[in-house]
Write a structure and sequence with these properties.
The chain has 369 residues and is α/β, with parallel strands linked by helices. It contains 10 helices and 23 strands. The strands form 5 sheets. Strands 7, 10, 11, 12, 13, 14, 15, 16 and 17 form a 9-stranded parallel β-sheet that branches. Strands 3-2-6-21-22-23 form a 6-stranded mixed β-sheet, with no helix packed on it.
């Protein structure tokens, strides 16, 4: 049994003092809470449900080799599982990207693809964010069936106020696809209706949606008051003020899912990049279109966890939002846990929450965050 030499670990979302042991033969955690602890903290491998690209790879145009390169680079930042996310584009290009993602195979030491997140095209033209308006459309069940049949689609983001949205939610739920509400001008009532039909996630709360007011709470109000809904959150200084992040955690700490909304520019220097048909510039690590619109992030998921901690979120809540909570949306995937018998997908952090070691199935991976 290999010991990690840590002083404690997060197990089932709570701190457990003592070292962690790994069975290198099985690639699983052998024990937690061992005596003679060392230094640092062991946490489960991170799960990112919204990744548009990374390490120079844009998933809308990626081939098999590109997917492998991105998966390897994500693993070095502590991500063990993720959803390649496709923003709105022409249907033929989207279908091609879904097929390419379906052909991508996990490589030793690389992050695992959970399935494809379709962020569109059934979104509101009033809240498009960086999505090309010319490709947005009302829900179309025929097109939706084509997209779902093209490959391993596991999540679809839609605007619940659009005509036909509830029928699309029903179709996705029957197909085992996670439905998320986002890029939307929906009222709280329209959002509640989608949740009643089976929507179970909110795509990047506060961003690209109807603002919360005391008489018109919109998606934000519905999301923070419905216990069955997980809440995606981009915890970086460009997208959300500290108070917005704190508010979300205080209202729904056990339902927050930290995501990066990462781009091909993630892990790369400043410069010009593309997200499908959208060009953007990265300056000082912040990605914007020429008109100033934010275009996702270059932050790592562990960086988002650290930022949440820096503004006052407890380490347990911040880590759980990038591990255990997203894992609950994928039951049976064997991710997001660090109990004896679980897969030894483990990160070792120092006292400043910086990455020291990465283990995938008990095999060390060179960290690169």
């Amino acid at each position: 049994m290999k010991r990690l030499g840590v002083s404690g670990a997060l197990v089932d979302g709570s701190y457990r003092a003592g070292d962690v042991g790994i069975d290198e033969d099985s690639g699983r955690i052998a024990a937690v809470g061992l005596c003679r602890p060392g230094r640092g903290l062991a946490i489960p491998g991170l799960i990112d449900l919204q990744v548009n690209g990374f390490a120079g790879v844009d998933f809308l145009t990626a081939g098999a080799g590109d997917h492998q390169r991105a998966a390897t680079a994500l693993a070095r930042t502590g991500v063990v599982a993720y959803q390649p996310t496709l923003i709105t584009d022409r249907p033929d290009r989207t279908i091609g990207a879904i097929i390419a993602a379906g052909k991508a195979h996990s490589t030793p030491g690389g992050a695992r693809v959970l399935g494809v997140h379709l962020e569109g095209p059934f979104l509101s033209s009033d809240r498009p964010g960086t999505h090309p308006i010319e490709y947005l459309r009302a829900p179309d069940l025929t097109l939706a069936r084509r997209l779902l049949a093209a490959g391993p689609v596991t999540q679809l983001t839609l605007a619940p106020e659009l005509p036909g949205a509830l029928e699309l939610v029903d179709l996705c739920v029957r197909s085992g696809v996670l439905v998320s509400c986002g890029h939307s001008d929906a009222t709280a009532a329209a959002t509640h209706a989608a949740i009643d039909h089976g929507a179970r996630l909110i795509t990047h709360l506060f961003d690209a949606m109807r603002p919360f007011t005391h008489r018109d709470p919109g998606i934000v109000g519905a999301a923070l008051t419905r216990r069955e809904v997980a809440v995606g959150l981009i915890a970086d200084p460009s997208h959300l003020a500290p108070e917005a992040i704190q508010l979300a955690f205080r209202a729904a700490a056990d339902r927050i899912v930290l995501v990066t909304d990462a781009l091909a520019a993630g892990g790369c220097p400043d410069g010009h990049y593309r997200l499908g048909s959208v060009g953007f510039e990265v300056s000082g690590g912040v990605a914007r279109r020429a008109d100033g619109t934010l275009v996702g992030t270059t932050i790592t998921l562990l960086g988002a966890v650290r930022h949440a901690c820096d503004i006052g979120i407890t380490s347990e809540a911040a880590v759980n939002a990038a591990t255990g909570t997203p894992a609950r949306l994928f039951p049976g995937a064997d991710i997001g846990l660090s109990r004896p018998g679980d897969r030894a997908d483990v990160l070792v952090l120092d006292d400043a929450m910086r990455l020291r070691y990465v283990f995938h199935r008990g095999i060390p991976v060179e960290p690169g965050e």
